[in-house]
């Protein structure tokens, strides 16, 4: 006569329960959408986690601290990024991307190609060497109007082909990519790199009214006094503004003028130097 083994039965039930729980956790994690403005000191690094493990990294900050951030917010088994975006060539945006390329599989990279040809520094040369080794696809911002990201739409705003303002500042602040990220059933986020007044005026003059309107603004150039003119801010008309900035930085960012301008419009201000990593869940 066979004796029923309750211990074995209990273990099987526990394993099945864990399997079911893991499945639903995986489904939940695969569907969540969030935007993370990493605290990387005086620099920018923004991680966008879209449904279906569609992950995007916008800039990489001034050092390799972005690796620690990605390790915290990406699953251990996930070592790939769907898209990497370099807004411009300054090292407080570029350097961390080099470290990421050494350790992660990157499928596509979006950048301003015209500017890259004119301003090939040693750091940028290393960046391109790693891209070639990775065999990542390069997307030129000046050739794009929109980019479908499945659960989001990226709308390119600036720069356009033969950008005169960019030509006067190759690889610099006014060559920064500006684009709107429209999350499906979520918010619109305007990413601005380090653009300054000249680029802001160019954007206002060469784009249709309404294209800048967004729920969240990544404040350009860490809140510098040289950025965020009133006309530009009025066109964006955000509910929230994120300032990526280092504590007690030598540049005095963000400027009091920028803070007061945002406050007058009733915009909620979120700062990485005060809050650390800023997470916006969709």
UniProtKB/TrEMBL annotation:
Transmembrane stretches, start-end: 6-26
Pfam families cross-referenced by the UniProt entry: Lactamase_B (PF00753)
Keywords (A to Z) from UniProt: Membrane, Transmembrane, Transmembrane helix
CDD domains recorded: ComA-like_MBL-fold
Domain of life: Bacteria
Listed InterPro entries: ComA-like_MBL, Competence_DNA_uptake, Metallo-B-lactamas, RibonucZ/Hydroxyglut_hydro
Domain Metallo-beta-lactamase: start-end pairs: 42-247
Record protein name field: Metallo-beta-lactamase domain-containing protein
Organism: Candidatus Kuenenbacteria bacterium CG10_big_fil_rev_8_21_14_0_10_36_11
